[in-house]
Design goal:
Elements lengths: L1 H23 L6 H22 L6 H34 L6 H22 L4 H7 L1 H10 L1 H15 L8 E3 L5 E7 L3 E5 L5 E5 H6 L3 E2 L10 E10 L4 H14 L12 E7 L7 E10 L5 H18 L18 H20 L2 H4 L3 H10 L1 E5 L4 E3 L7 E7 L1 E7 L5 E8 L2 E3 L1 H6 L6 E4 L3 E7 H10 L3 H21 L3 H22 L4
Antiparallel strand pairs: 1-2, 1-5, 2-3, 3-4, 6-8, 7-8, 9-16, 10-15, 11-14, 11-16, 12-13, 12-15
The chain binds adenosine-3',5'-cyclic-monophosphate (CMP).
Adenosine-3',5'-cyclic-monophosphate (CMP) binds next to strand 13, helix 14 and helix 16.
Amino acid sequence: MTDSWFLFAGFVLAVIVVAGFLRLAPLAPRRRLRRSVILLGFYAGALVLSAAQHWFHAPALATGLQIAGDLIQSLLVINLVTTAVFDLLLRACRIEYPDILHDVVVGAAYVLAFGLLMHRVGVNVTSIVATSAVVTAVVGLSLQATLGNVVGGLSLQLDDSVNEGDWIELENKTQGQVKQIRWRHTVIETRDWDTLLVPNGQLMTQAFRVLGKRTGQPVQRRTWVYFNVDFRFAPGDVIRTVDDALQSAPIEGTALEPKAHCICYDLAGDNRDSYCYYAVRYWLTDLARDSGTSSRVRERIYAALKRAQIPLAIPAKAVFVSQDDLEHRDRKRLKEFDSRLAALAAIDLFANLSEEEQRTLAASARLAPFSAREVITRQGAKAHWLYVLLKGRALVRVATSEGDERQVALLEAPNFFGEMALMTGQPREATVIAETDVECLRVDRTDLEGIIQQRPEIATEISGVLAERRVELAAVREGLDAEAKRKRLTTEHSRILNSIRDFFALK
Ligand code: CMP
């Protein structure tokens, strides 16, 4: 009897030691130790009852308590050993194992311990199992589905076909992320915030897709975004326009490699429509955020097409009723012209031009919208246009000698940029990126050249503005103080004026 109490004390000590180690490993699950504590309670109960049994004079009770005590001892040993091995040792060695493996090992050890104990007390377990065919059949049949699920869960985890965190698509097209593979079912969370419990047996018998997974490749999924443009616009032009916009700057949530690109995948859709069918294919990196990312891609497509004055197709079957006579068209054109003229006159670079000169520029200036985060012009590129910022904000960034990029200015409408390279023939001095959705007017180099040729003194006015901006850039790149900036301004002014004169061959 005293031996049993010593053994009990030993178990208590072992539980305390394991619990102490579990505390040191913050990620280890503590719930498994709870089972040992409960078993300790039963063990203590059995010991107390054994101590009191001589009052009852029931030998059968004594034997029962003895067997129960032995069984609890074995279960306690199994529990403590498996907790130490799985939760402490394997975790300390950073060996990943599926939860279900632990449960199977413990379950098998319990059955073995029970069998051995029965054998020791003279019960022939094998013959009971073998001879009770009816019991076996009933148990087998009733557990068929459950066993199927358990085996399914085990094989799913052990053959590594699906892991927690994977996105899968079931046969019925439901998509979701695998959160847990449990004994009987797999827990899947869908994008609609639903939780789906799929029996493991079912997962084993149906073909399902593991989304975005390829051996040796990052997890990303090809996603399609559709749009249509009518036949007046050549597919080559549409594809080039959209490809340029997609690849000019990264779009949040899409992979850099493979690059997002546009294809024309059908002409006229079975001759029913009078437009081409296009699709942009991009690789989605965060599979949970498919619609938001597709929406950003659509914004980029929309802005690129608008800039290139390529309208999205309108269903050909629709009947348009609009007042589109000559007078109406003229009125519309005049209104657009007036607003372009007002925008040009409002910025200081053109404020000193005569009204006639401003009108010449306004007549040829083109509207160019950009979506947020799009690169409008890149450092080092050749200049074709000067941009007048009508709406939104744009960031001016410059690559420093250390190789990183620094912001030098935040331009807010009404403003202008892209004049430096345009006026001097040098490559673009900085990269300009749309911070918000932006609307610009593009002023063509040749139109500006025509005006400067006619009135060369404009070059002097413009070079003053250019010099100020260039000194700001130099201050960022070279860390100039106020005095150095002031000196640099004077030299830059005459240098820029000379390069404008050279570039436009002015006298
Ligand atoms: P460009 O060199 O043609 O192209 C990049 C443009 O960024 C440049 O012309 C200027 O219009 C603009 N830019 C460069 N530095 C500044 C600055 N310090 N402040 C405002 N705009 C700038």
